[in-house]
Amino acid sequence: MLMDKLHKLEEEHHDDNEDPQQSFKTLELANISPPTPPAGLIEAIPTFLRTSADMLRRALES
């Protein structure tokens, strides 16, 4: 989705008459917001890390 927005911006700002030496384009990335994570994902990360650490600890102890 983010790449689609970048391609769309590139197409909107394309100029066929531009100087080849000046063909580098900059995009205002600050205007492109990152995708919103699914509900509950952020809250699940600490539990996932704790569970993974516990599993690793048990595997190393045995």
Task: Describe the 3D structure.
- The protein is mainly alpha-helical and about 60 residues long.
- The protein has one domain.
- About 50% of the residues lie in helices and about 0% in strands.
- The chain is built from two helices and no strands.
- The protein starts with a helix and ends with a helix.
- The mean pLDDT is about 75.
Entry keywords:
mainly alpha; elongated; 62 residues; 0% strand; 2 helices
Brief summary:
By secondary structure, the chain is mainly α.
Q: Tell me, rounded to a whole number, the average pLDDT.
A: 77
In terms of DSSP E residues, the strand content is under 5%
The low-pLDDT segments are none
Helix and strand element order:
HH
Please tell me what the overall shape is: elongated
Radius of gyration: 22 Å
The secondary-structure class comes to: mainly alpha
Q: How many E strands?
A: 0
What's the structural domain tally? Answer: 1
What is the CA-CA span between the terminal residues?
Answer: 45 Å
Oligomer: single chain
Q: Please estimate the helix content.
A: 40-55%
Major β-sheet profile: none
Q: Treating each run of at least 4 consecutive H or I residues as one helix, how many helices?
A: 2
